[in-house]
Amino acid sequence: MSSRQLGGLVLPGLRAGDTPATTTPATSVSGLSAYDKVHFGIDEYGRPLQVELASRSLLAGGLSRSGKSGFISNGVGHMSQCTDARIILIDGKIVELILWKETADFFVGPDPVLVNHVLFTLQEEMNRRYEWLTHRRRRKVVKGDGMDLITVWIDELSVFTTVYGTRDTQERFLSLLMDLVQRGPAAGIVVVAATQRPSAEIVPTRVRDVFSYRVAFRCSTQASSDIILGTGWADLGYDASKIPTNRPGVGYCLAEEGRPFRFRSVYLEDEEIDTLVARSLSIRGPHLAGAA
């Protein structure tokens, strides 16, 4: 079994005993880095929406065909062009992220046991990186450390929180997810998660509140909009249920501080994704050798 396959996945990165002198910082052939800001679209004033995922986490929600999956796909597209990125794709519906499978270090569908193993393996890697930071009296991983940014993309949270598996596996998933979202960014592990069914059952408040960025596309109700952005924002006029059905890709983004703002996300056609995948394989091919 390949070192990139679970179980037995060995995620790349510094171990506790490593020193910077024993590692070589990755340089992206394409000119992109996983530590660069990711262009997700434009705001209502036409300014670029650029998100620094390297030290953040992101939660997105919205109805089917509202633009949520396209938004996530654009982020994966950026990381696919970076040699200092690791891409873990967790796709509860399989078809949302499948076009990017060849670019991923690991791809897993609606298998709650395997998904929990993936998250547990990432948690162990996170702990090793924290040990590395502690030994050097450091607070977070930065680009110059030569450590790959591990990006975890989860499309359709409801599959793992309410649909598949036992109650125990669902609770285990939420516990692991919350730990990775809270502590992962400082260790160079970023989680981007999405759901088309925003509800307190699927995205408990305790989990939602630890995400740095929250993005709400068109929702079915005001309550669903508040599940993503936070209670009370809809009453203040930031209500994703009011977004017209003929405005796919339009949503509200809430960063760690401030008020939500309206934006429109980038959309990649399948042909454009195919082009990016081919380019990714030429750029990141050696990293993907033996990937699942």
Characterization of this structure:
The protein has about 290 residues and is α/β, with parallel strands linked by helices. The protein is built from seven helices and ten strands. The protein has a ten-stranded mixed β-sheet. It is globular and about 45 Å long. The N terminus is likely disordered.
Strand element count:
10
Structural class: alpha/beta
Poorly predicted spans: 1-8, 12-29
Strand order of the largest sheet: 2-1-10-9-8-3-7-6-4-5
**Helical residue percent?**
25-40%
Shape: globular
What is the succession of H and E elements?
Answer: EEEHEEHEHHEHEHEEH
Calculate Rg over CA atoms: 18 Å
Tell me, rounded to a whole number, the average pLDDT: 87
Major sheet summary line = 10 strands, mixed
**Tally of helical runs:** 7
List keywords for this structure.
ten-stranded mixed β-sheet; 31% helix; 292 residues; 7 helices; 10 strands; alpha/beta; globular
Helices, strands, pairings?
Blueprint lengths: L37 E6 L4 E4 L6 E4 L6 H13 L4 E7 L14 E3 L3 H24 L13 E7 L2 H6 L3 H17 L5 E7 L9 H4 L4 E5 L4 H8 L20 E5 L6 E5 L4 H19 L4
Would you kindly provide a brief summary of this structure?
The chain is of the alpha/beta class. The chain has helices spanning 68-80, 112-135, 158-163, 167-183, 205-208, 222-229, 270-288; strands spanning 38-43, 48-51, 58-61, 85-91, 106-108, 149-155, 189-195, 213-217, 250-254, 261-265. The model is unreliable at 1-8 and 12-29 (pLDDT under 50).
